Amino acid sequence: xxxxxxxxxxxxxxxxxxxxxxxxxxxxxxxxxxxxxxxxxxxxxxxxxxxxxxxxxxxxxxxxxxxxxxxxxxxxxxxxxxxxxxxxxxxxxxxxxxxxxxxxxxxxxxxxxxxxxxxxxxxxxxxxxxxxxxxxxx
Length: 138
What we know:
Largest sheet: 4 strands, antiparallel
Order of helices and strands: EHEEEEEEE
Strand order of the largest sheet: 1-6-5-2
Strand content: 25-35%
Number of strands: 8
């Protein structure tokens, strides 16, 4: 998992300069068809999957209920995330994830590869069960 430049700068300013930043009030998980890189590219498009949206890992609950308390430089999702039926015309292969501070646009926080790529055909659903999405800081 990689931290975005935005997140890395905020962390360094906090730890090394004592400059606090406002943490997100909610985070969202996106799916990508290739490495999103630091810009968050290759996110699944509405053209390919019209009903696609980023998912709130807390499922509407308090932000702290989406991921576990960090331990050993890692945290994992505590709740299932379900992307409903893929309503596009062709299969999509999700290879990466990213975590953002907004449902659309926003700041990319962290990103990385899925443990296993997922081919999502028309009418298929994609589920990330708890605790399958593990976020690790190197």
